[in-house]
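Q: Structure for this?
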Amino acid sequence: QLQLQESGPGLVKPSETLSLTCTVSGASITSSSYYWGWIRQPPGKGLEWIGNIYYTGETSYNPSLDSRVTISEDTSKNQFSLQLHSVTAADTAVYYCARQALAYYYYYMDVWGTGTTVTVSS
Amino acid sequence: DIQMTQSPSSLSASVGDRVTITCRSNQTINNYVNWYQQKPGKAPKLLLYAASSLQSGVPSRFSGSGSGTDFSLTINSLQPEDLATYYCQHSYTTPYTFGQGTKLEIK
């Protein structure tokens, strides 16, 4: 059964780098049928798509975060990671990793991790 | 970026009711719309993709329609477990933006 699990520090200081890892079990991140993505949700607010990565290493980022975000993969560990640089309190959120399926020309996030809460505070 | 606007922001309905949530994009996006259900404290769950295709395992009381700029999610015969916030999302081009959410309460 496919599972995704986020991990990383729950507390990050302002101006530092937020680093999270998503460990995938039950499927390979090198499959050509899927992208692997990050989404976040500030407390009490809606969902924001951060970006994704394909098995080729191709990435796509939300322009609102583009200059600060890096998504990478470690195929040997079946993991992909998120780095968000120069964080502020506005980056406090629950961060989700998800599998983004591609069927014909349709993309949709069909499997999600449980989410991890990251607080930015000194 | 493509903006997705949902309405209403919240609604209250009774068990057995038929509920419809709408989503409008600010440019035409064919049928590149997904719908997600998020229960309190949980991760979102995919309900429908390509506007009207039901994800495997999702009850058939959920249905979707629309094309172009106007889309809807309908829940037939509302159940107590449908208490949740519902989000639309487009997948026409990156960034894949979400609507602001519709919080559904059960009377």
